[in-house]
Amino acid sequence: MSVFDYSNQEIIRLVRPFVCSCWGHEKSFGNQGARVWRKTGEKEMPKCLKSSVKFPQSVMVWGAMSAAGVGPLCFIKGRVNAASYQEILEHFMLPSAEKLYGDEDFVFQHDLAPAHSAKTTGKWFTDHGITVLNWPANSPDLNPIENLWDIVKRKLRDARPNTLDELKAAIEASWASITPQQCHRLIASMPRRIEAVISAKGFPTKY
Question: What is the pLDDT, as a whole number, of residue 143?
């Protein structure tokens, strides 16, 4: 199902639970450095120099956010399958939800990656009494946690980590610097995101 298949009532139903939603997502980060754009005369400025990494490193992480802030990061080893994803949910998503919501009810959002949509993963949520937000496929523009990953990526460019340990430390520091206010603003943008995606008819939006 795409976002265009949603009726007005379904869109209203999609928007309503955002304030009490916990958003989880995986992301890969590396220390290869980003493309540097500079103006004439800026060639030697430190901010315009791209560091050289002899042995590029990369790491996959899982994180969660809500309108109240972010939860603990999980550094992932190997590929994510249904079994390993359920371990992440058990040991990182549940503690994140407890930190962000305490005893209050919440709904969980993740995309439709195979590990997320596996029958055994669905059973895990059912067994734990957690409602999963109905979510359209191929809709990163709608997902506010993507904006948090962009914040982390920008901070990594400034940190310029060389080793895997430096990369992990920089990711953790960047993630820890994200404020509840930033998260709340992103969640509050959800109605505008949905309107923008529908208006764009499948083309990219500013989000």
Answer: 84
Tokens of 29: 């980060």
Pairing assessment for the beta strands 131-132 and 107-109 based on DSSP bridges = parallel
pLDDT of the residue at 164 = 94
Tell me the C-alpha distance between 170 and 156, whole Å: 6
The confidence score (pLDDT) of residue 7 equals 44
Stretches in the chain below the pLDDT threshold 50 = 1, 3-4, 6-8, 11-12
**What's the rounded Cα separation, in Å, for the pair 35 and 120?**
41
Structure tokens at 20: 């009490």
Amino acid 135: pLDDT: 79
Which residue type occupies 30? G
**pTM, full prediction:** 0.78
Beta strands at 107-109 and 21-30: parallel, antiparallel or unpaired: parallel
136-160: buried (b, 16+ CB within 10 Å) or exposed (e) per residue? beebebbbbbebbbeebeebbeeeb
DSSP type of residue 93: I
Task: Write down all domains in the chain, each with its CATH number in brackets.
Answer: 3-27+57-200 (3.30.420.10)
Distance CA 94, CA 188 (A): 23
Residue carrying structure tokens 């920008």: 154
pLDDT reported for residue 94: 96
